[in-house]
Specification:
Main location: membrane
Helix content: over 70%
Membrane topology: Multi-pass membrane protein
Number of strands: 0
Largest sheet: none
Distance between the termini: 37 Å
Number of helices: 12
GO cellular component, one term: plasma membrane
Keywords: Cell membrane, Membrane, Sugar transport, Transmembrane, Transmembrane helix, Transport
Radius of gyration: 25 Å
CATH architecture of the domain at 68-103 and 165-296: Orthogonal Bundle
CATH superfamily of the domain at 68-103 and 165-296: MetI-like
Family: Belongs to the binding-protein-dependent transport system permease family.
Structural class: mainly alpha
Length: 303
C-alpha cells in the first residue's frame, strides 16, 4: 500500500478546495437568474434587479390567467409539444426496433443521413419548409372550403399545415425524430433477442410480442427519447413564431415574447410569472423521466 506524505495530502486538499469553490461559483452564477425569476414572480413590486420581495403575492400568476391568455397559451404549448413528443416516441420505437434488427447495408448511411436534419440549423430550413407546408395548406383549403364553407377555417386550425396545430406538430416531431431514432436504435441493440425468441416459441403473435415483451422492455429508452424530444420542442421559439400567426394558437414562448415587446413599461412581475409557468412542465417531465434516462444511458436492460 502506497504511503501518502503529508505534503501530498495537503496539495490534494487544496486542489479539492479550489475545485469545489469553482463549481460553487459556477452553480451560483447559473442559479441566480432562476432565483430572480422565482422571487420576482411573487413580488408585488417586481423590478429589474434582484431584491427580496417586500410584499409576497400571487397577483402576478392570477393576472397571467385572468387578464392575459395564459391558460390558452399553456394549453396550446402542452397540446402541440405533447402531441409531437407522442408521435416521436411511436415512430422512434418502431423505427429504432426495425433499424436495430435489420442487417441491411443501407442502415448506417441512412442513420447518418437523418442525423443531418438535427445538425442543420432550423433557420436555414425555414424558407423551403414554409413553402412546402404552404403548398399543402392551400391544397387542403381548396378541398375543405367547397365542403364545409365558413367552417373550413375552424377545421384548419386543427388540421392546417400553416397556422394550424397539425403543421407545427409535424415540424416539431420531424426535428426531434433523428435523435430519438438513434437513442432507440442504440437501446434495442442492447436488448437481448432471447426475450423475443422465448415469446415466439411460446406461440405469441406479433401484436402480443410488441405489447407484452417489447414495450415493457423499451420503456426506459422511450422515456429517455421522449424526454429529449419534449424538452427540445418545449424550448423551441423560432418554429412557432414562423408557423403560427392567429392569436388563439399562440404558445407560451410567443406569449412571453409579446409581453416583453409591449410598448408600455415592462411588467417584470407578469413576465417572471409567465417564465416560471413556462419552466415548470420541463422540470416536471425531467423529474418523471430521470430514472429512465439514467437507466438508458447506463446500459439499459441487462440480459
Amino acid at each position: 500500500m502506497a504511503v501518502v506524505s503529508p505534503s501530498e495530502t495537503a496539495n490534494k486538499s487544496r486542489s479539492d478546495l479550489i475545485a469545489y469553490a469553482t463549481l460553487s461559483l459556477m452553480s451560483i452564477f447559473c442559479a441566480v437568474p432562476f432565483f430572480w425569476v422565482l422571487l420576482a414572480s411573487f413580488d408585488g413590486n417586481a423590478q429589474l434587479f434582484l431584491h427580496w420581495p417586500q410584499q409576497w403575492t400571487f397577483a402576478n400568476y392570477v393576472r397571467v390567467f385572468t387578464k392575459e391568455d395564459g391558460a390558452k397559451w399553456l394549453f396550446n404549448s402542452l397540446f402541440v409539444v405533447g402531441s409531437a413528443t407522442l408521435l416521436v416516441m411511436v415512430l422512434a420505437g418502431l423505427g429504432g426496433y426495425a433499424l436495430s434488427r435489420t442487417r441491411a447495408w443501407w442502415k448506417l448511411p441512412f442513420l447518418y443521413a437523418i442525423l443531418l436534419i438535427r445538425v442543420l440549423p432550423p433557420t436555414a430550413l425555414v424558407v423551403p419548409l414554409y413553402k412546402f407546408l404552404l403548398t399543402l395548406n392551400n391544397a387542403e383549403a381548396a378541398m375543405l372550403r367547397p365542403i364545409f364553407g365558413s367552417y373550413a377555417r375552424g377545421i384548419m386550425r386543427w388540421t392546417g399545415f400553416i397556422d394550424g396545430y397539425l403543421g407545427l406538430i409535424l415540424v416539431l416531431a420531424t426535428m426531434q425524430l433523428p435523435l430519438a431514432l438513434w437513442i432507440m436504435k442504440t437501446f434495442f441493440d442492447g436488448l437481448p433477442r432471447d426475450y423475443e425468441e422465448a415469446a415466439l416459441m411460446d406461440g405469441a403473435t406479433l401484436i402480443q410480442r410488441i405489447r407484452r415483451v417489447l414495450i415493457p422492455l423499451a420503456l426506459p429508452g422511450l422515456a429517455a427519447a421522449g424526454l429529449f424530444a419534449f424538452m427540445s420542442a418545449w424550448g423551441d421559439f423560432l418554429l412557432p413564431l414562423i408557423f403560427l400567426s392567429s392569436p388563439e394558437l399562440q404558445t407560451l414562448p410567443l406569449g412571453l415574447f409579446r409581453a416583453f415587446l409591449r410598448i408600455n413599461e415592462i411588467d417584470y412581475g407578469l413576465l417572471t410569472a409567465l417564465a416560471f409557468i413556462y419552466l415548470l412542465p420541463a422540470v416536471v417531465a425531467f423529474g418523471f423521466a430521470r430514472r429512465f434516462l439514467v437507466q438508458t444511458f447506463s446500459g439499459g436492460v441487462k440480459g
